[in-house]
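Form 7-S
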Amino acid sequence: MGELAEFPLDGVERPSRQERIQSLRRRMAAIPARGEVERAAPADAPADRLLPVPEPLADVLPQGGLVRGSVVSVSGATSLLIGVLASVTAAGGHAAVIGHRRLSLLAAAEMGAQLQRVAVIPDPGPDPVEIAAVLLDGMDLVILGLGGIAVPSSRTRAVTARARSKGAVLVVVDGRWEGAQVRLDAQVSGYEGLGVGRGRLRGTRLSVRAQGRAFPARTTRMDVCATRTRTEWKHADRVDSPRRPVAL
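Output:
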């Protein structure tokens, strides 16, 4: 696992914001070029325009993945976010996780994530949005934990434009970000393996709602199942109409 930023211990003077940004830029220059994401795409979306997602989630997204240059808002169960991180890095992409302390890298590894392609910045300082804007240049996926703040629309427009120009996907969680092209919400709807004599939790069922500017809300259910060696995503019963390709 790579770390693009190292932070001093308490009692040691912290670098200024400008120094932190310059340090990030130097470290970014040392990161290898983005990997080619290996995933077959629908005919109406070239493969190099998409980042992969867990297969059950792909069914409710118009293009079957996350379109490069877009901003995605994710809320609810963290498992969905971890699944996206695992899918992207397993396919050769590079990702950064900013200000999201509750995201389990162990769970990501069990889903197949390649942690050597993940940069983690747990404490981005007072302006995590600026850090994310820097990292959009060089990463395929940037996950930004907002810590409950609402980002002004003037700022979101500027960062969205940067994501579009750099061909990266920005995923925002735990805050308010107006103008996201796709919104995903995952809620736990059941468990497998609990109860007398069952021993341990073997699976979690999620109800996932996807909605975007270019497509109506769709909901599906998916199971996150633990095997002996890894965690897998499986289809559950579909709740509403099947996916129809729609250009974003």
